[in-house]
Amino acid sequence: MDDPRTRRAGYVPCATVPRGAVVALGCLGLLGVVLAFWRLGLPEVWYDEYVYRTAALAYRSGDFAPNFEHPPLGKLILAAWPGLDAGYAATRVLMGFVALAIAGALWWVAAHFVGWLWGSVAGLAWLLLPHRFESRARLDHLVFLDPFMVLFLVLGYGAAWHWFQTRSLRWAAAAGALVGAAAMAKLSALFVLPALLVFFVGPGRARVVLKDVAAFAAGALGTMLLFLAPMGGPGALLRMVGYQREHNADGHPVLVAGQAFDAAPWWATFRYAWDGLGAWATVVLVAALVLAVRFVRPLRLVALLLASLASFWVLFAQSRVALPHYYYDWVWLPTLALGLVLPALAEGATRWARTALVLLVAGAVVATGANAVGVLGERESGLVLVAHHVPPGRVLVAGLPPSSWPDAHLDEVISTLDAPYVQAVVVGNHPLSPVPEPLRLLVDEPPPGVRVEEVDGYRIATWQGTLALEGDRYRIVG
Predict the structure, then answer these.
(1) What is the pLDDT of residue 106?
(2) In what order do the strands lie in the sheet with 394-398?
(3) Residue 274 carries which DSSP code?
(4) Tens digits of per-residue pLDDT, 394-413?
(5) What number of helices (H) and strands (E) belong to the chain?
(6) How confident is the model at residue 225 (pLDDT cuts 50, 70, 90)?
(7) Are 212 and 204 spatial neighbours (Cβ–Cβ below 8 Å)?
(8) Mean pLDDT rounded to a whole number for the chain
(9) Cα–Cα distance, 458 to 142 (Å, whole number)
(10) Is the pTM of this model over 0.85?
(11) Which of 99, 362, 367, 388 lies in disulfide reach of 280, CB 3.0 to 4.6 Å?
């Protein structure tokens, strides 16, 4: 029987896949798996990790009050993870599996258009291209809610396309349920709903809109109500939206491109994406989006990707709140475009199409190599490394934001020397966290009996006896 899929550009039936291609894909897949699980215990604990893991532990005992400002699904999955009690490294193993699941979901979506061989490009690109976060070599080595949202959103888009192709109400309900699940991991998933309207544009669509939208809405609302129930039902959603509105109105200080801002500038998410992806991957993904308009078909699929990107970009550009990991919410869209445009370029008959293919592949290879070197070469750094140079006991930390303090691999982190039995002072140089003058003098001009050493950009002051403030300087008094 003639399968219409085999007539699509780039579609390669499994029976015709060369053995060498299978071996190459297997090697790249193995590298992707290694990178997803490589040395998960190295980075220090970031503040959101502390909050989400604490909330998940509370969920186990039936307490859904912690972290009420975010939906519960991601934390429920964390609560069900057997390694949650074993610490952050064991909890991050779950995030490695989520990264693999996102890659598999992208593969599934792309394979519908270009076959399983070419479809693997999207999944492998997700695993192999850089996704850095500040000094960490891989963002999804940390416990964030964003990967859960992305997983359900990719699956939801795949189901939505099947719904569009088959007009099956079951696929419509499944798409709604998956998008609803994404929103129950993180509310920003709701901003893709306008993009899904591209499915209703065109002749003959008005007759089926009502029943399809009803099935989609039933799936989405049913899923959201199911997961909101432990938090108090629909009222919990209103509290979340209210909190996020107030949070956005107030904004918060951010550091973007080395500059401190009282609130996030509109371009923060784009600069964070540039920093997290690196120049090579950014150029490759932007080029993939541009080339997709010319080469990828159907155009409705390209419109869906671009409309979804625009929705996320508008959300983050108008927000006064920005964090360096938010780009993870939308970077899967150009990654999918890359997986679709490469086979289309390979089928292109013009010289410039083949040239574009070579340049895209070369750029992706360079970005992949840089990412692999960064992840595999990652070593202890920051407060993890500092902890080896600090005596056991209470440690005063200054010059870095409080988000760096929770479970910083130090015995007990405090913020004032007024507390008794302080054993050491650790001073950073974060622009958003100025160091009090007495502490700056303590490490710049240490008094007799105070030893200062520098470790990975931090200065550590230790002493024997008791440190007391005399005027504007600390002295050892006993």
Answers:
(1) 98
(2) 412-414, 394-398, 422-427, 458-463, 450-455
(3) H
(4) 888 888 776 665 555 565 66
(5) 14, 9
(6) very high
(7) no
(8) 88
(9) 22
(10) yes
(11) 367
